[in-house]
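INTERNAL TRANSFER SHEET
From: sequence group
To: structure group
Subject: TVP38/TMEM64 family membrane protein

Please process the attached sequence and return the structure record in the designated field. Keep the field labels unchanged so the import script can parse them.
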Amino acid sequence: MAFLKKRRLLIILVVLVLLVVLIHFLFFTRNGVRLTHSNMHQLTAYIESLGWYGKIIGMVAVFLQTFFPFIPFVLVAGTNVAIFGFKLGFIVNYSMSVLGAVCCFLFARYYGHGWVERRLQRFPVITQFSKRMESQGFFYVLLGRLIPVIPSSAINLAAGLTRIKVSQFLWGTIIGKIPIVFLESMIAHDLFHFRKYKDRLLLLLLILVILLLIGNWFKKRLASKAQDEER
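Return from structure group:
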C-alpha cells in the first residue's frame, strides 16, 4: 500500500513538472507563443470568415462537445469568445453547455439507457459517483460541475441512469457550470491577449490546476470505496 501511495505521488509530481515545462514553452518562449497564437488565431479567423454560419458552428461546437468531448472545451470556448467578444461569448458557451448537458441527460434516461449503462459500468469511479447522485442528486451534480471529479459528459450520462429528479440535475447544472465555464472562457480570452493579460492568465491556470488536483483526490477516494466494496 505504501509503495502504491509513493508511486501515485511520483506520478503527480511528474505530471506537475511536465505541466510547468509545457506552460513555460507555450507562454514564455518566442516559438511557443507564436505556435499557440497562430493556431488559435487561424482557427478563429477561418470561422469568422464564414459570417453567421461561423457563429452557428461555434455554438453547435459547444453543444456537441458535451456529448463528444474530443475537443478541449477551452479551445471551443476561446473560439466563441474571439468571435462574439467575452461577455456574449461567455453567454453562448454557458447556455449551449447547459443545453447540451440537459439533452445528454435526457438521452441517457429515455432513449439510450441500455447503451449508456454498458458503456459506463466499466468505470468503477463513475459507478460510485452515480450512487451518490442517487441519494444526494443536486449536491453531487453541483459538486461535479464545480470540481472536475469525473468528465462532465460522464456526469450527464450517469445521472440519466439514476432516479435523480430532472429539476435537481437542471439546477445543479445551471448553478455549477457558471464558475467553470467562466474560468475556461476567461482563460481562452487571456490566451488570445496573452501579452496584455499574462499575469492574470497564470493565476487562472493555477486555479484550474488546483481544481484538477482536488478532483483527482476525490476520484481516488471514490476508487478506494469501489475497491472496498469489491472485497
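Handover comment: Residues 49 and 136 are 47 Å apart (CA to CA). The longest helix spans residues 194-230.
Transfer complete.
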